[in-house]
Specification:
- By secondary structure, the chain is of the alpha/beta class.
- About 35% of the residues lie in helices and about 15% in strands.
- The strands form two sheets. The chain has a four-stranded parallel beta sheet, sandwiched between helices. Strands 5-6-7 form a three-stranded antiparallel beta sheet.
- The protein is elongated, with a radius of gyration of 17 Å.
């Protein structure tokens, strides 16, 4: 979706994946929490970002207006969305979810964006604090980086934050 068009529709609308520019690391993490695969690297260049979006069929998210002067982005060959400057992370998330009409889904790994799968607690008991094992029954492992997650207080805070994001009024 070059600057303002909706060409992201060429991607699978049910499971869009994103690649975020170097300035949008916080947005990438929150997209993962909202259930979307979002890649991010601190030192990624414009062309590397564009190639990744093409290769992996991702929607490019950027706050760099200059990237829209590159022909394949400008012409919509690479679906892209310009994130307005001056928005906080919560407002960025609200902007992306509203602009692309995306629901909040089951979370993904906040570290890498991989899918989370429930695992029996017996399989991960040596990787989780014993106090946590004592009071929780459900644990999740990332299918990519194998990090373990559980629905503790941090998980509930993230869920509340996502609910607040849905309540953010449109800024434009």
């Amino acid at each position: 979706m070059a600057a303002s068009s909706g060409s992201a529709d060429v991607m699978n609308p049910l499971t869009p994946q994103f690649t975020c520019d170097a300035m949008l690391g916080g947005l990438a993490r929150w997209l993962r929490a909202a259930g979307y695969d979002a890649s991010w690297k601190a030192d990624v260049g414009d062309w590397e970002l564009i190639r990744q979006a093409l290769r992996e069929e991702r929607i490019l998210l950027t706050s760099d207006t200059g990237i829209f002067r590159i022909g394949i982005v400008r012409d919509g060959e690479v679906p892209a969305l310009l994130i307005p400057h001056g928005l906080g992370k919560q407002e960025q998330m609200a902007f992306v979810l509203r602009h692309l009409r995306l629901p909040v889904r089951e979370p993904r790994c906040m570290a890498c964006g991989g899918p989370l799968h429930e695992v029996p607690k017996e399989q991960i008991q040596d990787r989780v604090p014993s106090r946590t094992l004592a009071w929780l029954q459900h644990f999740y492992e990332c299918g990519r980086c194998h990090q373990i997650f559980w629905q503790g207080t941090h998980w509930r805070q993230i869920a509340r934050h996502l609910e607040n994001i849905r309540a953010v009024p449109p800024s434009h």
